[in-house]
Amino acid sequence: MENKNTYNEVLYKSNPFNYTIPALLEAQGKLFGLTPKDSRKARVLELGSSFGGNIITQALYNPEAEFIGVDLTAEQVKKGNEVIEKIGLQNIKLIEKNILDINEDFGKFDYIIVHGVFSWVPEIVKEKIVKICNENLAEEGIAYISYNTYPGWKEPDKIREMMIYANKYFPEISLGDKTQRGKTFISIVAEQMKSYIDIIEKKGDFVHQIEEILGMQDYYVGHEYLENFNKPIYLHEFVDLLKKENLEYISDISLRLSIISVYNESTKEKLYQLSQGNNVIKEQCLDYILDTKFRRSLICKNSQIEKLNFTETFPNDIIDSFLLTSKFTKEELETLNEENIKMIMLHFLEIPNKSFKINDAIKYWEENSQEEKTEEERNEIIMNLRKFVLNSMINGKIKYYCSENEIITYEENKVYIPKKFRNYIRVLTIGEGVGAIGIGNSRNEIVGDINDVDVIVADILSEPKTEAEAIKELEKTNIYRTMPTGERIQITAKEYFPESIKKLENLGYFVKK
């Protein structure tokens, strides 16, 4: 209850988070051997949903799924529901409710999301969250919980303690003022530490962490470093809490924290020796090596334990089933030694936001390879491709999902933008959601370049039109561009229209007539 007023006091923007979406949780569950519900038709619960920014976008793109958000702050729930109503979404609602009051009568969910809550609540609430992940999770369901973790949070703890001390004698001031006092205090400490060569040589990383915090948004710093509660936890302690509720730890959403095959041979050998096949010990030891400070853990019911695969060897049919999206740059791909994989990946890089499957990659290679290959050589290239894809998934350079919304390109007089998409960007760009909720795409990635002119373009394309007709309507609007120098210059509708179309295409808003 104590944290409730501070979130009214200092607004914490409710953004979409890509790594929480059920399409990803479903895929990662399948990777580890589970059989979760099709995320497009799932029931999803988010605890600590704020204004609903993390699940509104998911509800927009998944009309057959149902989303429930729970939050204690009445004002945020009220505003979030107003935004949902304005958009016209029927498959999502936010409920003002204390997490402690949720019981089995609240229903079963295929996916439960708890992001940015667990470390910042009392122990009794932590225990209740874990209990909900047992009692309210469907038998084959997957839960996601994020939290600050040790050992990485040992140093930030010192910074938090300094900021709390800076406000020790000012208990009545607002969180905003506390944040300013705290920032001023640690900036002075960092400045003085840098004035001594021996100290900066020994504690340079610590000073760098202070400087990073000084550059962060006040709303984040206030809630992260000055709330009454922020208690990091070791992974093994977190897993102990799960065991008490008959839950099983699956993996971190960041595969690099769970799969060690991408590390050097010495690291792998030592981790195998230390863990003796226990996946939790393996990951805890890896946290010590990497100094991990934040985890996003996936959880399932104990009844699913026989399905779980911790061997780090994954069936080809699972990898082949995923929709893949490259996050490589052209420069990174140009450094690849394997020419066949380089050719394949550069090809798919030319189609932004376009997903592909392993079979699409194989087909492209077979149709465009200039060299004749024996069956043995062909199989080796395909094996290397799968290995490259898996390693890239682990390192975060390839995103993977079980399903994805189709991206339809603009064709004049043949496509239009449905009302729910037009309402969504209007409400979040110039309406009730401005400043409170971030705009996201179908993958729940934050999109920062949508403006009021794009809202107008979307409305113009509420029905199929020729490009000339659309541009003629857009000419009624004055359009300006801010130059790198800060100067604002007026541009024509004809200049801006293709840019806006590309944004709306990437959002997946176009539907064929």
Task: Draw up the topology in text.
Layout: H1 4-9, H2 22-31, E1 43-47, H3 53-61, E2 66-71, H4 74-87, E3 92-96, E4 109-114, H5 123-135, E5 137-148, H6 154-166, H7 175-194, H8 197-214, H9 218-225, H10 235-244, E6 247-252, H11 265-275, H12 279-290, E7 294-301, H13 316-321, E8 323-326, H14 330-334, H15 339-349, H16 358-368, H17 375-394, E9 398-401, E10 415-416, H18 419-429, H19 452-460, H20 467-474, E11 479-482, E12 488-491, H21 493-506, E13 511-512
Parallel strand pairs: 1-2, 1-4, 2-3, 4-5
Antiparallel strand pairs: 5-7, 6-7, 8-9, 10-13, 11-12
Helix pairs in contact: 6-7, 7-8, 7-9, 11-12, 15-16, 18-19, 19-21
How would you sum up this structure in a few lines?
It contains 21 helices and 13 strands. The chain has helices at residues 4-9, 22-31, 53-61, 74-87, 123-135, 154-166, 175-194, 197-214, 218-225, 235-244, 265-275, 279-290, 316-321, 330-334, 339-349, 358-368, 375-394, 419-429, 452-460, 467-474, 493-506, and strands at residues 43-47, 66-71, 92-96, 109-114, 137-148, 247-252, 294-301, 323-326, 398-401, 415-416, 479-482, 488-491, 511-512.
